[in-house]
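Exam revision sheet. Question 4 asks you to relate a sequence to its structure. Input first:
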Amino acid sequence: MSARELSRVEVLSRVKAGTLSVQSAATVLAVSYRQAKRLLRRYRAEGAKGLQHRSAGSASNHARPTVERERVLALAREKYSGPIDVRFGPTLAAEHLASEDGITVHHDTLRRWMLAAGLWSRARKRSPHRQRRERKAHFGELVQLDGSFHLWYEARGPRGCLMNLVDDATGRTLARLGDQETIWAAVDVLRRWIEAYGVPLALYTDWKNVYVREPNAEEQVTGAVPLTQFGRMCAALGIQIIAASSPQAKGRVERNHGTHQDRLVKKLRRLGIADAPAANAFLETTYLPEHNVRFAVAPASAEDFHRRVPCRTTLDRVFQLEEARVLSNDWVVRYDSRYLQVVRQSAHAPARSTVVVREARDGALELRYRGRLMPWTEIAAPVKPPAPAMRLSPVPRRRARPSADHPWRRDTRASDRERALSRAAQP
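Answer key, structure tokens:
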């Protein structure tokens, strides 16, 4: 079963147990109320297996022949492709295929074919959002995440960054103090939120490269969704990342920053706290519980939209950095200026094989080839041969002069006249 179908099993099991209504399940699953009732009826009759798509593993009954698809793509590549400002869109290309080549294909079908072949990329236009947004109705439906740089310790310590998570429906807050707004700082605060409340449906962030990024050239051509390391982790947990176009768009967490910059700074001053470990202990045990009691509000709906907390092993596996590296012929992988010697599996390394290097929060590394764990040891970097010594001031070379009896010094005018007269005297 797919991840979407497994998520449906989890939500519908809560409906069957009576802890979640059908209307709320439809909202969580992003389906209509009638579709949620159909899914629930099938789940009650057939169990989890009944939620699997009926057409899984079979070809579509309306699929066009492969030969026809290849012919259409060949014509689109030859006549209607090119740079972004030159190529035809799927709708225009479908019109010309019908009028010039006599091939009728729906523009949506052609769009899917061109996306898969890399001949088209989606270009979405977003209109500016100006209307004031109301709170979400359910706890865990949307959580806002942002970092706030401030002199939290005033003159007692360096400038720090408060990683702040605020639930949109209730205003419930969870925060951690650190040095910078890095990926591990975001992972640390998100994992604590998940362990405390569960997996939220969506995160509202800004456009920092930690959370989202612009697509590269290949992704622009293929239409692939660009993901950062943090975005890949959230996607594995089923968390949607929504990037705000302005600070005002995520005003709830921005206003929450102002509250902390006033109240938290003064409380840290009274306690004389000047480092992150002591500040985080104070946040967890005293400040955040008091803050949530004072400022958190009841949601419009009492139903909790958080999904269940994954086990510790799953969270450890999800919250890891992943990088693809090429395995060399001597079974060595280079990662972050380190040389990792993989234990040989055969006489020769697979040609241009790719190994996935995973790095945990504590720096522990693991290597996987096609999903299989590979044993390895770290070796020293190869020693480069010393560069040849360079002369600081080269000795100038003296220009050679010909000797006094050298042929270059002889006067050849007389011999040239004699040679010319002898050639003229010949019959």
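Marking note for examiners. The two ends are 109 Å apart (CA to CA).
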